[in-house]
Amino acid sequence: MPFHKAEAPADAVPIFFVSAETWPQVRADLPAAPAAFAAACDFEPTPGRLLILPSAEGGLAGVLFGIERKDAKARDPFLPGRLATSLPSGVYRFANQPHDVTLATLAFMLSSYRFTRYKKKDDAQAPELCPPEGVDIERIMRIASAVEFGRDLINTPANDLGPDALETAALKLATRFVAKASVTRGEKLLQMNYPLIHAVGRASDKAPRLVDFVWGPKDAPKVTLVGKGVCFDTGGLDIKPESAMLLMKKDMGGAATALALAQMLMDANASVRLRVIVPIVENAIAGNAMRPGDIYPSRKGLTVEIGNTDAEGRLILADALALADEDAPDLLLDFATLTGAARVALGPDLPPFYTMDEALAAEIARHGMQANDPVWRLPLWDPYDKLIDGKVGNLCNISAGSFAGSITAALFLRRFVEKAKTWAHFDIYAWNPTAKSARPEGAEVQAARLLFDLIEARYGCKAKVNEPNDNRKIVRRVGFLDDDSDEGSAFDDLMP
Ligand code: BES
Ligand code: MN
Ligand code: ZN
Predict the structure, then answer these.
(1) How many CB atoms lie within 10 A of CB 295?
(2) What one-character DSSP code corresponds to residue 222?
(3) What is the pLDDT of residue 470?
(4) Which residues lie with the beta carbon below 6 Å from any ligand 1 atom?
């Protein structure tokens, strides 16, 4: 749906961001009645505190929202996201600047995400925000829309998002941006030399497959994204206990991240030749499942011993990365919900990343902080590399010993990357165990926003410039997977 245009309403309710240092001045500037009301409510400008100020007629005169002091040790630029879930319906505007107006606006949008596929929410009463001055609202909308697309994919359970449905979602995205796509399915994977993808996915009644699409001019810098697409991870014959299996619909979070980042880049018309490779399987249990002790060839030629059928992500990524590496991309990025060990090390909110490229590592860390999409570098520690040597095959999919599980998984992947000019691997969690502002409980897209910024900074984007937008309001979205319209993107409901 195209964007609507209308005059910005003069009566949009002002939101005042206040910190301990700015509150005295804001309070002094308030009309007497709301100032007295704030005092009567014992309002303190602590971060996250919200107070709605009544007008003399009983309407909404304004909103006070506490944020951190400028010099606070920790500031959450997404804190204003709480407004989207706490305010009554109506049209609002920022009366002054939060710490980061772009991230505050993005937070407003990311906060209002709801997974509505199975339980409809009445969103008619959602608050609306006039795009604040000085923000690139089109860019924010594109980012938010892609994040929501990724979240919807991750939240959708495996009975509705098996390998066939994930393939369809990837192809729908490719089609929308006129990318050239191909799919290799089932036994064809063996003919085309993807033995590991086949071995992992063959026990499911939904065939394993590899989706590969290419977009953009041939001569532009080559950026290739690879994502782990395990639609459900039972563990295989090394079956997971129930508590560990419960969340395993999210084991295609890497694929969802790659697709979300691809949507951001294509939607912004990034000046790159983008390639997206997603190996898609279900790690299921059946008589024909791969077994512990089996040895398989890989696309690259290295033989791989199966030490544990639950270390399946690195197997499918090995073949996908080998393929990605063949055309020597300038930048190769992979995303995977690869190890529980990454969570033990850094927790759910801070995915580790790995790269040999010092300059890229610094860029990733910087953009992560700037975009409030934090990641933390862990080392590809050479002395641990021998831990994944195989006894009978070239390498084994689990390491000898249980230490440094995220590092040894990354070292396993590294054995399949040779020609790429630079490579980074992200061991993501793809899930918010508890809700935080702009990070609702459930699916999360991690590292895509920071990498969109990085790729835009490196190679540039030629997004279409739209008309001035300061007279539109941001309202809640419609679900990507809920609606059957061709317009796959959420946030097409900017209202007058
Ligand atoms: N998908 C899991 C990793 C995972 C578990 C990510 C929980 C996020 C949350 C992966 O396939 C797996 O099972 N990894 C094993 C590897 C082990 C068998 C070497 C793990 O981390 O326990
Ligand atoms: Mn597993
Ligand atoms: Zn897995």
Answers:
(1) 14
(2) E
(3) 44
(4) 233, 251, 308, 310-313, 337-341, 343, 398, 405, 429
Compute the distance from residue 251 Cα to the ligand 1 centre, in Å.
Answer: 9
The strand pairing partners of 248, in sequence order, are: none
* pLDDT for the residue numbered 8: 61
What is the rounded distance in angstroms from the CA atom of residue 312 to the CA atom of residue 362?
A: 30
Q: How far is the CA of 316 from the centre of ligand 1 (A)?
A: 14
Q: Nearest C-alpha to atom 3 of ligand 1 is from which residue?
A: 339
Domain ranges of the chain: 13-135, 144-477
Give the Cα separation of 317 and 281 in Å (integer): 11
CATH class of the domain comprising 144-477:
alpha beta
The closest of 20, 14, 132, 116 to 68, measured between CA atoms, is 20
Structural element, H or E, at residue 226: strand 222-227
259, 232 in Cβ contact below 8 A? Answer: no
DSSP 468: P
What is the C-alpha to C-alpha distance for residues 347 and 342, in angstroms, rounded to an integer? 7
Query: Across the strands, what pairs with 91?
Result: 128
Distance between first and last Cα of the chain: 12
Question: Could you say which DSSP state residue 131 is in?
Answer: P
Ordered alpha helix ranges (H), 347-390? 358-370
pTM: 0.93
| Alpha-carbon span 141 to 30, nearest angstrom | 32
Give the tokens for residue 218: 């041939």
pLDDT for 9: 79
DSSP 318: H
Q: Give 305's strand partners.
A: 295, 396
Whole-angstrom Cα Rg for the chain = 24
Split the chain (496 residues) into runs of 10 and give each run's mean pLDDT: 45 96 95 93 97 91 96 96 95 96 98 93 82 95 98 98 98 98 98 98 98 97 99 98 98 99 98 98 98 98 98 99 98 99 98 98 98 98 98 96 96 98 98 97 98 98 64 47 38 32
Q: Which of 275, 298, 284 is nearest to 231 (CA)?
A: 284
Å from CA of 313 to ligand 2 middle: 6
- Helix, strand, or coil (residue 323): helix
Distance in angstroms (rounded) separating the CA atoms of residues 266 and 463: 9
Phi, psi dihedral angles at 99 (to 5 degrees): -60, -45
Joined tokens for residue 6: 């209308």
Q: Which helix (H) or strand (E) holds 190?
A: helix 188-191
Please give the C-alpha separations between residue 73 and each of 44, 76, 171, 374, in angstroms, as whole numbers. Answer: 19, 10, 45, 16
Topology of domain 13-135, CATH? Leucine Aminopeptidase, subunit E; domain 1 (3.40.220)
Q: Is 239 exposed, middle or buried (0-12, 13-18, 19+ CB in 10 A)?
A: middle
